[in-house]
Amino acid sequence: MSSNKETVAKLNSNYTQQYDVYIQRQKRKKQRLVRRLVLFSIVVAIAIGGIAAYHVKQRTVHAEKVEQYEQMEKELSVLKNKEEDLKEEISLLKDEDYVLEIARTNYFFSKDGELIFKIPEKSPSY
């Protein structure tokens, strides 16, 4: 029975030729569709990857800027406090009595007939 192969003869009619052409067109259409979908998927994946990378980069830049802003805020508050202290010192230095008191304590400036004795702050331990 092996010699009895089933063979089907192909008809070479106009209809079968048109049908074969139609099937080949459908295969090419399907192949083009698959290629377009793959290409579109690749483009979308690249776009999403680019957007994600940009987003991550922007988040790191934002975090750095927030940290820098907080440091600047701290520095600003320190400088404002220093400015207030300096303004207060300026107003005190305009007072003549205050300036004389500083000269007497720090530079041993004395009034007429006044003797200055320096007393050590810590007593010696003997």
Provide a brief overview of the structure.
The protein is mostly helical and 126 residues long. The protein has helices at residues 14-93, 96-106.
Please describe what this structure looks like.
With 126 residues, the protein is mainly alpha-helical. Helix content is 72%, strand content 0%. The protein has helices spanning 14-93, 96-106. The protein is rod-shaped, with a radius of gyration of 48 Å. The mean pLDDT is 89.
Q: Which helices and strands, and how do they pair?
A:
Blueprint lengths: L13 H80 L2 H11 L20
Keywords:
rod-shaped, mainly alpha
Overall mean pLDDT = 89
Low-confidence stretches: none
* Beta-strand content: under 5%
Shape: rod-shaped
Q: What characterizes the major β-sheet? A: none
Helix-residue proportion: over 70%
The SSE order reads: HH
Straight-line distance between termini: 131 Å
From the alpha carbons, calculate the radius of gyration and give it in angstroms.
48 Å
Let me know the number of strands. Answer: 0
Q: How many H/I helices?
A: 2
- Helix and strand composition category: mainly alpha
